[in-house]
Specification:
Blueprint (H helix, E strand, L loop, with lengths): L1 H4 L1 H5 L16 H16 L3 E4 L16 E8 L1 H6 L5 E8 L2 E9 L4 E6 L3 E6 L12 E3 L19 H9 L5 E3 L7 H14 L2 E4 L17 E4 L1 H12 L5
C-alpha cells in the first residue's frame, strides 16, 4: 500500500511538459513509477508483471504463490495533458485469483482498495473534490480510440479508474471493443468491481484472470452494481423492490 501512495512523490521528480509521447515511446511517469513499484514488490519477494517490462521481474527469492500485476500509471496520457484520471493500479494474485488491489487516482486524490471477500474501501487524499459527472455509457479504451455513434463517451485510456468509477456508481456501463486492454490495465479495477457487486466479462468469452504471466488483450464489457442487480432481476423474472 505504501509503495502505491509513494508514487505521488515519485512523480514530483518527473518533468511534465504537456506534450504527448509518440506512439511506442516511453512515458517518463510510467518509467519512474514502474521502477519504484517493481523494486518494492521484489523487496518483499513478489514477482511483478508490469506494463513497462518486456519480461516479468526476477529479483531475489520470489514467492511461487504470489504475483503482482502493475500498471505504473493507468491513464499516462492523462498525466501528460493534466486532465482526467491517472495513477497507479496494482493487483496482487494468489492461486485463488485476485487477492488485493489498489487503484490511486492522483488527479482526483482518491485511493480505492479491495480485498477478496472483504469489500471495497475508498480514501480521499485531497480535502475537497467534486466527483466528475459521467455519462451512463462509457466507451473505454485508449485515448486515441475512435468514437462509436450512438454512445456517450468518456474515452480516457484509464481502464482501472473507469472500472472503479463504475463500481462506485458514477456511471452504469463500460464497453471497450478496441481489443487493446491487457491484464495490468484492468485487474486492479476488476477486483474492486467484483467486490462492489458489479459484473465484468470479455466479449470474446475469454477468462479475465490469467493463470500465468499472461499479456494478451481483452475486449471488456462491465456493469455497475445497480445495473448488475437490474439485469439479474430481469433475467429471473422477479419484480425489483
Amino acid at each position: 500500500m505504501q509503495a502505491v501512495l509513494d508514487v505521488e512523490d515519485v512523480l514530483r521528480t518527473v518533468d511534465r511538459d504537456g506534450r504527448e509521447s509518440t506512439e511506442g515511446s516511453p512515458n517518463p511517469a510510467d518509467t519512474a513509477a514502474h521502477r519504484h513499484l517493481v523494486s518494492s514488490a521484489a523487496a518483499v519477494g513478489v514477482r511483478a508483471i508490469s506494463e513497462e517490462d518486456a519480461q516479468p521481474s526476477e529479483v531475489g527469492p520470489l514467492s511461487a504463490d504470489l504475483r503482482l500485476y502493475v500498471d505504473p500509471i493507468d491513464g499516462s496520457r492523462n498525466w501528460e495533458t493534466g486532465s482526467g484520471p491517472f495513477g497507479p493500479s496494482v493487483c496482487l494474485l494468489d492461486s485463488g485469483g485476485p487477492l488485493w488491489s489498489a487503484v490511486y487516482d492522483l488527479d482526483a486524490g482518491r485511493l480505492v482498495t479491495a480485498e477478496r471477500g472483504r469489500g471495497v474501501t475508498t480514501r480521499s487524499t485531497l480535502p475537497h473534490h467534486d466527483v466528475e459527472r459521467r455519462p451512463p455509457v462509457v466507451l473505454g479504451g485508449p485515448s486515441w480510440a475512435p468514437y462509436e455513434p450512438g454512445l456517450r463517451h468518456a474515452v480516457n485510456g484509464a481502464t482501472a479508474h473507469d472500472l472503479c468509477a463504475l463500481a462506485l456508481g458514477e456511471y452504469e456501463i463500460y464497453l471497450d471493443t478496441t481489443n487493446t486492454v491487457r491484464p495490468w490495465d484492468y485487474l486492479g479495477g476488476l477486483l474492486v468491481l467484483r467486490e462492489a457487486g458489479g459484473y465484468c466479462a470479455d466479449l470474446d468469452g475469454r477468462v479475465l484472470v490469467p493463470d500465468a504471466e499472461e499479456r494478451f488483450t481483452r475486449r471488456l464489457v462491465a456493469l455497475s452494481p445497480a445495473m448488475t442487480r437490474m439485469v439479474r432481476t430481469s433475467s429471473t423474472g422477479r419484480t425489483s423492490t
